[in-house]
Records
---
Amino acid sequence: MADTDQLPGRILVVDDEVGMREFLAVCLGRAGHQVTTAKSGADALRILNDDEDNLGYDIVITDLTMPGIPGMEVLRHARERDTPPQVIMITAYATTDTAVEAMKLGAYDYLIKPFKVDEILVVVQRALERRALRSENRRLRDALDGVHTLDRMIGRSEAMQKVFDLVRRVAPTRTNVLIRGESGTGKELVARALHKLSDRAEGPFVPVNCGAIPEQLMESELFGHVKGAFTGAAADRRGVFEIAEGGTLFLDEIGELDVTMQVKLLRVLQERSIRPVGGSKELSVDCRVVAATNRDLEAAVESGEFRSDLYFRLDVVRVVLPPLRHRSEDIPLLAARFFDRFNREMKRNLDAIGPEALDWLLTYDYPGNVRELENLIERAVALESTSMLSAAHFPDRRPQTRTNDVVPERFPPEGLDLDAALADLERSLILAALDQAGGVRKRAAELLNISFRSMRYRLKKLGIEVGRGDDD
């Protein structure tokens, strides 16, 4: 009786010795496999080529030395098929050269006669597992086509299908769009898709990270300046509104703009004209504005940090990107795409993502969302030393902070200083992020889903000094 834990396979056995053919047919058949035998290399090629008889073999087990067509030719022919089977070479006359040649041609394994029943059964099972993994990865790659894609974004989840549908509907208009989502969810990809699906696709797409530009340079960055407008302005310089003429301007981290710049941006959106720093003339501009943020802008409006009139001007159509932890059915698709890309770019020639690695990826929380998944796959592909991507190079899981860990069971009689308690919690989280990021402030800000400018402000407010300044 076949072991219920084993994968059944369709196997072609090729050997000119009748005893070996019968031996393999019996032991493999008892293990639950469907076995066909061929008495020669020519017979094997006929079976593989015959459309009527071809069952789509999972494994070919072939003798190396046979009269007429040898096992190496059977191997070459089998590996040239559209969906090649795994090929196991067997021989009583082993040499290092032939073993190396067989493996270079794509053989899965190379066994020396005589071998034990258990030995061949184990090799067959491992070959079937590899073929199954390759088939699953091929299925995932095929699933990347069609309705599950939008430009460079992929997803089969209902949440992402709604995003794709909204983007397709709003892209042909010139309506302002506000993209909301946590850091790493792909807000710039949405903005690029809006641009490529619009009638402005032939124009430029200009991305600007509002949180990465110093406040004193922001006006010049957006609107440009004339020669002599300030110290260092040695020549006229166009701003991004002019550079994006006829195309799309993507203002990422829009919530980091200070109030003064918010007023000036609102005027540009209303008047469709700009005035370069130090200039005296208004210049008309024609570009679509798409903004994005990971902040709660409604709360920022309530607190007076963000102007309500600018908020409503930007938030005409809202696209909300779900975090990766809320669309786990998309993780295999994304992992397959990143695996294929890095496997190709690094010339690693790995076979597939192993089952334990996929299980790890499916149960991880992804605080950094799709960007973190991409980084995890890139690192694992670079470091993997076997033919299958394993979970060995994924990081140890860190315990998640729970509310009960920071909320006291009872308040003291004199009460609690809420501001001080929140400051202590903020300090602890920032220090933990800095520790995990090796002191790199920009990376720590990404772990906390805040902008680099916000991180610098909080460090200054809390009096936290860190030593690494190469991220400024």
---
Amino acid sequence: MENPYDQEPIEEITEALKNNDAASAVAKVQEYLEKLDNIPLNIAITGESGSGKSTFVNAFRGVDNKDERAAPTGCVETTMEVTAYPHPNYPNVTLWDLPGIGSTNFPASKYLEHVGFEKFDFFIIISADRFRENDVKLAQEIQKMGKKFYFVRSKIDHNLRDEERSQREFNAEKTLEWIRKDCVQGLQKQGVESPKVFLISSFDLHLYDFQLLEEIMERELPAHKRNALLFAIPTINLEIINKKKEAFQAKIKYQALNSALVAAVPIPGLSIVADLGMLVVFTKQYKIGFGLDSESLQKLADSTHVPLSDLQAVMTSPLAAEIRKDVILKVISMSAVATALMAAEEGLRFIPLLGIIAAMSASYASVYKVLHDCLNMLAEDAQKVLMKALGLNTSV
């Protein structure tokens, strides 16, 4: 059965335009864009006490452990009830911090019922060392319920530091391989077939296996939920930046179509005002999605120990400043094509019939061009910032 989220409203929009009902067509476009932005994704994080569940929840959401929005962390069990932590920028994505199964009186089968397993899209089972009997029983019950689950071995940075202190000839790669092999063999002995274990440090998501975990989660999600995960995931490497860019790009045709439909209303100055407002809103979304807003940049600076001013210095586009209408006008002025199209639109809108159609075409083309340019500029800035933060060559 076709998923309703995958159904683009092209036929409905076309029918509304045939009936000369631009308002209905605008409503259809806006409804579709809102639906895309509000696809729910619910991720369950579970594991035994002290495994690092809450720290992982915070890292995934891009929230510092000391932030008031953070899941509480500590050396003792801090999660006794199912607690929802919506993503601060994408509230449709929620991470659920579950009580460690070892801290409850429920067997694995009843535990899932207790936490309300049906609402979760997948489970991440976290351990700070070997996976225990409770972890395995929980995984087996999750599998019976037809849900996906992933084993995450946390605190890898601590393990590497401990091994380096205790070994005369320390080798990070060999140590990581030994930890992975030990976890896999332990799970196999307890009856888990072909287990996949991801080695992760919540304080250094760009290292180790977080990218591989993201790729597998994305691949195994239903198609309509993949972008929800992608937008919420921290921008830890160039591949994620490119994926986010492609996802934003796919929405531009509807954002531009919305502008074109507004252009069908012959009120002086209305289209350009509406266009600028929309351009500001969508460009802000790109900036937040790439982690270029001030809060995300500060967190990146703190976690990588690169001064915030150094990260900001490599952002060379006009959009490095606060996104306002005057900034968008500056971007428009940099493109002769966009400037000409917007000027033509204003003149064409007052020519009966054919003029309105031409104005709609000009409006679509101009907004598409400006959003495309803004997206490219911010994606390039995001690449430079990430490479600077990771100490790589920032020439793109």
---
Amino acid sequence: MNFLRFNTFIAQDVLIFFYYIFAILVPLFLWYLRPYILEKVSFFQAVDKGAISVYKDLDKEKKFLFLLFLFSLFFCMELCLRMVFEAMIGYFDMHNYLYEIATHLKGKSI
């Protein structure tokens, strides 16, 4: 019966595993599939043609600032992802502690 409990299926190790999948593998996978996405999605076709021509026309300082902006945006998204997973870990820890308290107090009168 312990196998069917809620805290058996979601553990910190599972959350950490999925965090690293989303933080490392998904950006690499998207970068690898970038040409396919730009070719097949019509929204990105229009944006990509405009973005490439705008990027090529910038001088070195503005290119550096543009790339710095993109990297900072990427790191902010990684930070948000990290905060979401930390909140889920905290939530599941709270669940475990409340479950332990409830089972410990079961049968005792307050």
---
Amino acid sequence: MKKNVYIIFLIILIIGIPFFYYLSIDTLVSLKYETEFGECISNITGTDLCLQYDIFLGLTYFLALLTLIFIIFYKKIVKKEKIISPINLNSAFDDLKLSFEKGLTIENHKAGIRYLGLEKVKEWKSKFGYTFNIYSNDHFIENKPHFHFDNKGKGVSCKMSFEGKIFESNGKYEIDRKVLKELRYFLSLEKTQETIIYEWNTKNPKLKYKKKAYTQQRIKKIAKLVLNQS
């Protein structure tokens, strides 16, 4: 439940407690003045005031209990919205590819092993020339969003799905097979998926892509297919 919805429900519950309690007290007054001693039926309205009192008092207790549950289990009821901290796709892929060039394998990276370079801290500059681009007011291809993957120096220009399927290749040359495997592994990473979907939805609000389409299970499946490639 979203926090604003939770707050609205909690306010309704808090208001409801004194409201139904007042109605139960009001019913007691009616029970005293509108019925014969020991009777429950109102001489004015014909209503069963005993039943009415039980209902209003029961609702009072029920709302009080529900309010208590809402307050105690706040953290479980309210789901915190995940804040996306987009990564720079270009530099992230560049760094990953550099790790592979230094001898790290996809299997090792998947196992949590990282390459630690002793380079000077400076402004990032592309080492391999590969760039990701997601354009505004774009369109779906095969009912899916896409990004542009280019390398002008190598004559590569492609439109690809977020899983790494090549929709169009308009460059002079195709993507190197080794780079494609590394790219597909990069796309299987959760942070990459979060960023690329976030950027697409930001730039193409009329063609928003559901983030839930990329579950952990699906991401692992993509990674497994990448690792099984020759």
